[in-house]
Write a structure and sequence with these properties.
heterodimer, A: 8-stranded mixed beta sheet, two-stranded antiparallel sheet, B: alpha/beta, Pyruvate-ferredoxin Oxidoreductase, domain 3, 4 domains, 6-stranded mixed beta sheet, 18 helices, 21 strands, globular
Chain lengths: 289, 576
């Protein structure tokens, strides 16, 4: 394939900038949506790491934020509701050289797909999961989400939400994620830094992003008031401290809560038989004689 | 005259142990020296305890089915005797542990009572040798050279010299014991040809076929009767640079298979009915986003949890029509263990070529039974890879380009610079969302054109064989694991001067319409035997070809025997 190779080499010679990661399709989000900030931070993070678009896959499920792959020039997958983590797991295990981002919302990752989240974290698959949490269902217009506060009144919860909100950071910490951070869409530069660290981390990285829905559940004022940076001397290796912090309800802390080094699933499975050989049918069939 | 083609059934409680392994060991030893074997097994759904039975039909001539009833019953306990006595053919042999079983005195069978457990305990002082003792008795009574069993014991205990010694002693003790028995029956094996054969289950053959076809990613969730595919893949794939994932559920299994295939690796999952139901939404995604995947459904008795360890062919509707929206999928059904290998390779070939889900429908009997296989001829099975956008300028690349056969080049992340988004939404040729009536019509038609192209290459004699009379009063159309019983029923009918033919398509969607039309035109009546209540394949034939077949349905968890089908043939002809 002479042409394709030429094109690939030409691209690799250049320095990549934010515009190289834009697909040219305009995001379908409402004005003021937090997801614009997350998208912009993602472009910047990829540019900072100089990753080739052909080596990156953005996998998503269903929801406003799950539309992200269409706005990127990388490879992408816009699948069905809730299954982005298993799809991304298959991609990474099949080709460990790819950089895989999972991007989705609180409905996709904490409700319909919540059953996959602890397993991806526990396996420590080397993917970066960026969750845009707007605490509402935007695409279906303003129903309660698993991260909506108790008492929150919506068309599907006219008497107020009865369930306690899910705590994504706590959930990730409790199930073995090896990189756990929180960002805020209105602070895209800090968020860029968290995404860069997440991608560089060799294991399951979870970046929880407070990304308000300007249309149906505008929480900008709340977060502007409640966010607090983690102290500069925060011990990122202290799991218990991270869990305690994640339990705090008074403040919404931003920064890297926790990280540890643990062999990723992909690296571990390839260690069992490091010298993979060619399959030979005649030899294989001997076991049935 | 001696009978050299006969059926041995072994039954007992799994708490005692050794029912299945005694049968398997006898089968392996016989197959190694060239006998043809065909086994069937059924397990209890309980974890420990419960009745299990194993059956092997054995001959030095080719055999195609489980056969009718059983000729020799080995009853480990009273329950086994009572359950299987009604299936013992006239003139059959009952071998029982005379310390545990009290058979009725009756005249049309021959009984040999041997105090197996007592001998093992008192004479051999080796209770665990009971099963090998029974093998020795079987060899002595029915003409299996004991050396073949000795070889098998030796290889099984090659690292445990003491156990090997004791088992060989038990084996010959049993063999010598038969000299004290006055043989009254007529069952005696003929001469074996001493050509080594393979003994494989359907699941073994499906897995071997997948590995040969280049499958290097597997994900599955344990479920009877597909679990052993997961287990084999877990042990074998890492040896060949592949990865096997025990997923958290079936949605994750198929999801990760879709992801792996998107990333350029041939990938498969295997499940049974309940798991297959859970996979349905993602199967539609694979069809919409045009991603090659192979799904094995080893069918079991449903609905819901049903009878998990028993067979049924009742997921055909789900395979053919399950899921929301209109989407193409290819459905294959292997007809024998040997055929499982071929159909598994074909499944990957069609998935890669047509970039869509391919469902391989097996069933509990085919997945778990063993057959002897002479050799696997791979020359006739091409291994196929997907087409890539080689040479196309990435700027001009159309992942979902509208083409005559519906197939468009698929880029591989990391290898091709032709980036695209695999979409679950309706999309234009680039893959970008486009939800207009015109786009949906054009793209749906594009995706379905792949099925017509697949039909043209699979509507042939190899994948839709015909058997029996050229013009027939009855033409049987079957699918899946029933092939052998149908074939033997047709043989009996032909020998009795009846005009019967059979056709057994391996591709159930798209149906081989030309072959089937030709066949239907050459027979007076069409009979469709299948193991489900609704007549699902008969329904599919009626919907596709307008034919109104006579339906012959059986449920209950056991396969068709040749005798049942032959009886139905006679019944149809009498009422004609």
């Amino acid at each position: 394939m002479p042409d394709a190779t030429k094109v690939a080499q030409a691209t690799e010679a250049d320095v990549l900038t934010v515009k190289d990661y834009k697909s040219g399709d305009k995001p379908i989000w409402c004005p003021g949506c937090g997801d614009f900030g997350v998208l912009s931070a993602t472009y910047k993070a990829l540019a900072a790491l100089q990753l080739q678009p052909k080596d990156v896959v953005v996998a998503a499920g269903i929801g406003c934020s799950s539309r992200t792959p269409y706005f990127m020039s990388t490879f992408g997958f816009h699948g069905v509701h809730g299954r982005s983590l298993p799809i991304a797991t298959g991609m990474k295990l099949a080709n460990p050289d790819l950089t895989i981002l999972v991007m989705g919302g609180d409905g996709d990752l904490m409700s319909i797909g919540a059953g996959h989240f602890p397993h991806a974290a526990a396996r420590n698959v080397d993917i970066t999961c960026i969750m845009m949490d707007n605490q509402t269902y935007g695409l279906t217009k303003a129903q309660a989400s698993p991260t909506s506060s108790m008492g929150h009144k919506t068309k599907s919860t006219p008497y107020g939400v009865i369930a306690k909100p899910m705590a994504p950071v706590l959930f990730a910490l409790a199930n073995g994620a090896t990189f756990v951070a929180r960002g805020y869409s209105a602070k895209p530069n800090d968020l860029t830094d968290l995404i860069v660290q997440g991608i560089k981390h060799p294991g399951f990285s979870f970046v929880h992003v407070q990304s308000p829905c300007a249309e149906f559940f505008n929480t900008y004022d709340f977060y502007d008031e409640h966010i607090e940076e983690l102290p500069s001397d925060w011990d990122q290796q202290d799991l218990k401290a991270a869990i305690n912090l994640a339990l705090t309800e008074e403040k919404v802390h931003l920064g890297v809560f926790y990280q540890e080094e643990r062999q990723s699933f992909g690296a571990a499975v390839r260690q069992f038989e490091p010298e993979g050989k060619q399959f030979d049918l005649a030899e294989y069939l001997q076991r049935f004689s | 005259m001696a009978r050299d083609d006969f059926i041995i059934r072994i039954g007992g409680d799994t708490a005692i142990g050794g029912v299945i392994s005694t049968g398997e060991n006898f089968t392996t030893a016989a197959a190694r020296i060239g006998f043809q074997t065909f086994t069937f097994r059924t397990y209890p759904a309980e974890i420990k305890g419960g009745h299990a039975w194993f059956q092997v039909r054995i001959s030095n001539k080719p055999i195609y089915s489980i056969g009718d009833g059983c000729d020799i019953l080995i009853a480990f306990d009273q329950e086994a005797y009572e359950l299987h006595r009604p299936n013992l053919n006239e003139g059959g042999v009952l071998i029982y542990d005379s310390g545990l079983v009290q058979p009725d005195t009756d005249s049309d069978i021959i009984c040999y009572g041997v105090p197996f457990q007592k001998i093992a305990r008192e004479e051999l002082e080796f209770v665990r040798g009971t099963n090998v003792l029974i093998l020795g008795v079987m060899a002595g009574l029915f003409g299996l050279p004991p050396a073949s069993l000795e070889e098998m014991v030796k290889s099984r205990y090659k690292r445990r010299a003491e156990l090997m010694e004791k088992n060989i002693q038990a084996l010959y003790h049993g063999y010598e014991y038969t000299k004290k028995i006055q043989k009254e029956d007529k069952f005696w094996l003929g001469t074996a040809d001493h050509v080594a054969r393979l003994v494989m289950t359907g699941n073994d053959a499906i897995t071997a076929g997948a590995l040969h076809a280049g499958c290097r990613y597997f994900a599955g969730y344990p479920i009877t009767p597909a679990t052993d595919i997961l287990e084999t893949m877990a042990s074998q794939l890492p040896r060949f640079g592949g990865v096997c994932l025990q997923a958290e559920d079936e949605m994750a299994s198929i999801g990760s298979v879709i992801g792996a295939s998107y990333a350029g690796t041939k990938a498969m999952t295997a499940t049974s009915g309940p798991g297959f139901s859970l996979m349905t939404e993602l199967m539609g995604l694979a069809s919409m986003a045009e991603i090659p995947i192979v799904i094995v459904n080893a069918q079991r008795s449903g609905p819901s949890t049903g009878m998990p360890t028993k067979l049924e062919q009742s997921d055909l509707f789900q395979a053919l029509y399950g899921g929301h929206g209109d989407f193409p999928r290819i459905v294959l059904a292997p007809a024998s263990v040997q055929n499982c290998f071929r159909i598994s390779v074909l499944a990957f070939g069609l998935a890669e070529k047509y970039q869509c889900p391919v469902i391989l429908l097996s069933d509990q009997s085919l997945s778990h039974r063993t057959e002897t296989i002479r050799e696997v001829d791979t020359d006739v099975f091409p291994v196929v890879d997907r087409i890539r956008p080689n040479g196309t300028n990435p700027e001009d690349y159309l992942r979902y380009q509208i083409t005559d056969n519906g197939v468009s080049p698929m880029a591989v992340p990391g290898l091709d610079p032709h980036t695209y988004v695999a979409p679950g939404l309706e999309h234009d040729e680039r893959g970008h969302p486009r939800l207009t009536p015109d786009t949906h019509e054009k793209m749906t038609a594009k995706r379905f054109r792949k099925l017509e192209a697949a039909r043209l290459e699979t509507d042939n004699a190899e994948l839709c064989p015909r058997y029996g009379a050229e013009h027939a009063d009855i033409g049987i159309i079957g699918w899946g694991a029933t092939q052998g019983s149908i074939r033997e029923a047709v043989d009996r009918a032909l020998a009795d001067g009846l005009k019967v033919a059979a056709m057994h398509p391996r591709v159930l969607n798209p149906l081989p319409e030309e072959r089937l039309k030709e066949f239907i035109a050459s027979v007076d009546r069409v009979l469709v035997p299948e193991i489900n209540y609704q007549g699902q394949f008969a329904h599919h034939l009626t919907a596709t070809l307008g034919v109104k077949p006579i339906r012959f349905n059986k449920i209950g968890g056991l396969p068709f025997t040749p005798g049942e089908i032959y009886k139905k043939i006679q019944e149809v002809l009498v009422h004609a």
